[in-house]
Amino acid sequence: MNKPNAKLWVWHKHGWVKLKLKPDEGVSLYDCGETDEGFFRYQDNFYYDSNLNRIDNFYHRFESDCDGRHNYSVRRYCSVSQLRSIVADEAWDSKPVRAVDGRYNSGMQDFEVMYPCPPRPEWQDSRSWQRDYFAEAMGY
């Protein structure tokens, strides 16, 4: 029996983006840029595991600022049945968000106001870790 494609909303480059994954296929999203004190780069990988009927996600962020280098990574997953949950989000619940060609953005004008944010995956963290190189050098 063929499984349907999985569709989910994710945050990428300052806006909500809808991804469509075929069973046992994945996609990687990347971004990098300057910050007020340095730079950042991240990679966000999504994979549709049809045997477990879930989406696996691995997110890794590397940044450097006046306090040194920092790494943050998380592995998480979401059942395909939970991809369109209404998840509480303090950052978005008070701000109107507008839809434009399948992309959600705050600050857009002259378009119909949608949910405070789109229905999105209810992720379950399986592992996360971080590293602060400056703190390690100082013995923390």
What does this protein structure show overall?
- This protein is mainly beta.
- The protein has one domain.
- The protein has helices spanning 90-93, 133-137; strands spanning 6-12, 15-21, 26-34, 39-49, 54-65, 68-79, 98-100, 103-105, 124-132.
- The strands form three sheets. The protein has a five-stranded antiparallel β-sheet. The chain has a two-stranded antiparallel sheet with strand order 1-2. A two-stranded antiparallel ribbon has the order 7-8.
- The longest helix is centred in the C-terminal third of the chain and has 5 residues, at 133-137.
- It starts with 5 loop residues before the first strand and ends with a helix.
- The model is unreliable at 94-115 (pLDDT under 50).
Q: Kindly estimate the percentage of residues that lie in beta strands according to DSSP.
A: over 45%
Number of strands: 9
How much helicity do the residues have? Answer: under 10%
Q: Note the main sheet.
A: 5 strands, antiparallel
Structural domains: how many: 1
Q: Give the overall average pLDDT.
A: 80
Q: Residue ranges: pLDDT <50 for 5 or more in a row?
A: 94-115
Shape: elongated
Major beta sheet, strand line-up: 3-4-5-6-9
